[in-house]
User: What shape does this take?
Amino acid sequence: MKTARRWRNASKAAIAVSALSFLASCAKDAPQDTWQPAGPNAERIDNLQRPVFYVAGVVGVIVFVAVAWAMYRYRDRGQAIPEQTHGKPVVEIVLTVIPVLILLGVAVPTASTIFKLAKTSDTEMTINVTGQQWWWEYDYPASGSNIEQYGITAPIVTSGQLVIPENTKVLLRVTSRDVIHSYWIPKLNGKKDSVPGRVHLLRMEGSKPGIYAGQCTEFCGLSHSYMRMEAVVLSRADYDAWVANQLEEYTAPEAGTDAAAGEALFIQQCSRCHQVNGLKNSDGSLNIAAPEQNLVSGAAPNLTNLMTRNTFAGASWDLLTPECRDNVWNASSADFGERYLAGVSTECLNQKDLREWLRNSPAKKPMYADPTKLASTGGLYRGMPNLGLTEDQINIIVAYLLERK
Amino acid sequence: MITTSSKLFYGLGAVSIAGSIVWMIAHDGGALGAVALVFIATALIFLGAIASYVRDGHVLSTDTEQHDSAPAAQRGPDRSWFPLGVALSLGTLVVGLVTSPGIFKVGVALLIAMLGEWLIQNWSDRASSDPSYNERVRGRVVHPLEIPIGGALLLAVIVLSFSRIFLSLSVNAGPIVFAIVGALVLFFGSMLSIRPGTSRRVVGTICGVALVGLSVVGVVLALDGEREQLTEAAEEDHFAHRACGEEADYSDEDAVRAVSAKSSVAATVTLKNGVLYAEMDGYSGPLTSITLQRSLNSNILFQNEDEGEHRMVVTYGKVVESLGGGVERETLLQACTSLVAKGGQQGVVVNVPKPSFSSTEGFSITVPGLEGASVEVLVP
Assistant: This one.
């Protein structure tokens, strides 16, 4: 009796888990759904994985049914053990040839897709992607077609959001400053490991304007789950506007404002690690950050145009309030560029998360940033430490950062 | 009872005493020789007393049972070489004391080893009256030390001999010799596997001859010295860091020859017909400007397709040190290859900590001695 009850309970649990798994696959508008490609590279993968999935599904069903039938048909009913034989050449040959044929059928399109995804000779734009604990840096080299076709006359460096023009064959040169990470925007292409000392190439192309989410897919330490990324696809005109904005000279805050006070505090506290291009010290010299002296990775996000991005802290949190974020994410292709390029306004700023971050960043995102526990790294941090800012200091820093666009 | 041999010792003792008296009379009271003779006489009388006590260790001829079992009938211990070993060790130690601390340490180690072996040998010789058992007892104690140390020493001799040989041979001859030696070892091993019945003596002889031959060649070539290039590199202070641009044919600088550095390069920089240009994955044509990430190890490969030997120098800023009294010293931050001959390649790993706009002169890749051969380096 007890055994039968246990079997019934186990069966119910198995059915419930299966049903939940099945229902989870029905999610709509999942931002990282590999079945909803939004670019030619992801479509190539999709065109491969769908038939492979169907074939594998059919084979799986046949195997499951055969096993279930054999288990039922030949279950132990106290009968005598039948004669034991070994070897049935015809069956063995058939069961070998069929999988070989299936695998060959899968291998041909797979190899073709791999070669197509690895093609780099038709590259129209190149971007360096560098992973570190726990954020991604993007820099746009001022070289070759980047200058000639896209007007990138000086290197642009940003983080959190990769911005690319639509229908453009972009080549990402993926590498890492510390440990192995993996770059993956599911709707635009497959994943690519970023390995220290190596440059891996990844094609990226978006078919229509919008934001496409991804996340690091190689466990890389404490805050691996917070290492997110977003790819922003803009129309060519909007992209040109974005480039022009990124290349604009630094504009100092108006004297006497909170932002001006924030600039002074930024130089004192933040610019040890964070670079703001064009920012000058009180003596008129250029302010050059020194992340290599403070961080294991030797780099911190460049904040020159922070408020042109929609995210911060490794794309873990939005710089926009939920309403403003929805306004951008749900915009039509025609409206998207304008809304994205508007950046972060005072009204749309996600004050809550940004202030929490400035108040005590390690409390918000786990990092090795306790100054008393840095013996193993020679005093170098992994992530941003708690700066101990007062509320007044946070106010003026926020005021300064709001002008960084 | 005064036995036969004790009579001899007592008699010699008596002669020695008599001799000492004669000595004193003949030398007018001189005591030195007399004292020596008295000491000899004392020793001889002592030995005579021992001989009397053990009755010369003889077995009575009528006691036939003891003909095989008496200690005197047993095989004595083998001849020991350890006194000779101790003497040689002491000699090494003394020579080392005068010449080199290394030889002195070797002498100390040898002395300790020889004394240890000697003590254990003596102890085991007295373990029983059965020499084979004594040998087993000795082996049980010293083999756990002798075998691994002996094996390590043998390996060291082989490795040292090989290293001396290959440091002496030319770069081209080295691989050929290595291939021949490898083939011979393979051949010998194959023969052994084909003929497992080969006697141990034959195998041991071949191995012994090979070892001796290897050692002799190693010693001869070690005395002959290393090949010319290595000698020159040593004269040029091969391992010292030199300022880029200084001529040093065999100096490494920061050059990286690792395969990994060549397999995944950030940029390949080529010198051809006096023109320097860069190539990077993702760019269709040659570049006169490249962008490197900040604070990132970037592998840059230099290939020389020009006549003559050239080096590539990456300059990425400078460090200003204050020497006091208003005096400052500027040091360029540079990484460079060694001189690369036509058709050659060499890589350098560059990690640029500051953005290029922090330097008024900018960052660049150049070839010393070639005006205009330059590639701009941008770091955001």
